[in-house]
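TA notes, week 10

Several of you asked for a full example with nothing omitted. So below is the full record: structure tokens for the whole chain, then the designed sequence directly under it. When grading your own attempts, check the secondary structure regions first.
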């Protein structure tokens, strides 16, 4: 069966439609961007016109680090819900029995997370830039925020950090049996790439356009590798039997382990043979 963008679009449409039905996802998308917007604005507004340039540089570096946490953390929380959440709702087994390639299913779910997450990250970044130009009292901070290397890093790193968090989150979600555990592990998975961003933000590596492009390429390769790994580990049969076991307790009230096959007597005849 060939890869179909029509089936991919159907999965994407389903994922975006699910956001309207899930108060948790809507609340997460509303609250987290506000949290990551307030702190940078407070930091920028507190810098007076007489503050030294070195102090302003540290504040700007911290601001960009906070702005890049949002596209890493928000997708991790949502992606960790993608598989185990459907299992809890009882919609996983019907989805897995549809004629979908696993790549179509995984990419549809990933795009459904990355579009709103990265879109919100860009909106927050734009709001910080506009507010700094309108209300910041330190002109050095305004010029530092508008440097080309910082803007390029935000444009490149936001989707790539989101991609890392999404693939690790989906992989965890496919293996986890509890939504809260999946989300906690997914959140922790966003730390490694952010450590690299922190090194750049605090001038351990000198920020430049070349450095931003190199790190972006490294993250892109890592995202592709993670997609291949998650695709290879995505086991439909295990997920289907696990979902069936959770919804179909045995006669004694015990839930059979994943992979257990129960014999069903034939109607109108004996069960022998």
């Amino acid at each position: 069966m060939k890869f179909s963008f029509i089936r991919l679009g159907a999965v994407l449409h389903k994922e975006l439609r699910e956001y309207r039905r899930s108060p948790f996802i809507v609340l997460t998308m509303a609250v987290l961007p506000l949290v990551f917007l307030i702190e940078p604005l407070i930091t920028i507004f507190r810098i007076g016109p007489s503050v030294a340039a070195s102090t302003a540089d540290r504040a700007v570096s911290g601001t960009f680090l906070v702005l890049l946490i949002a596209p890493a953390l928000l997708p991790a929380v949502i992606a960790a819900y993608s598989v185990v959440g459907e299992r809890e709702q009882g919609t996983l087994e019907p989805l897995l029995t549809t004629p979908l390639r696993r790549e179509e299913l995984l990419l549809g779910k990933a795009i459904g997370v990355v579009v709103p997450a990265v879109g919100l990250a860009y909106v927050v970044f734009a709001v910080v830039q506009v507010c700094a130009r309108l209300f910041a009292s330190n002109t050095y901070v305004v010029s530092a925020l508008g440097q080309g290397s910082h803007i390029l890093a935000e444009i490149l790193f936001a989707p790539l950090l989101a991609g890392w968090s999404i693939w690790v989150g989906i992989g965890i979600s496919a293996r986890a049996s509890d939504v809260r555990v999946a989300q906690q592990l997914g959140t922790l998975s966003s730390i490694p790439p952010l450590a690299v961003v922190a090194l750049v933000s605090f001038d351990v590596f000198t920020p430049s356009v070349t450095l931003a492009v190199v790190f972006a390429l490294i993250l892109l390769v890592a995202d592709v590798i993670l997609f291949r790994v998650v695709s290879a580990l995505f086991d439909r049969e295990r997920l289907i039997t696990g979902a069936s076991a959770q919804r179909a307790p045995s006669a004694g009230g015990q839930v059979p382990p994943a992979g257990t096959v129960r014999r069903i007597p034939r109607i109108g005849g004996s069960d022998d043979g």
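Residues 96 and 236 are 7 Å apart (CA to CA). Use that as a sanity check on your answer.
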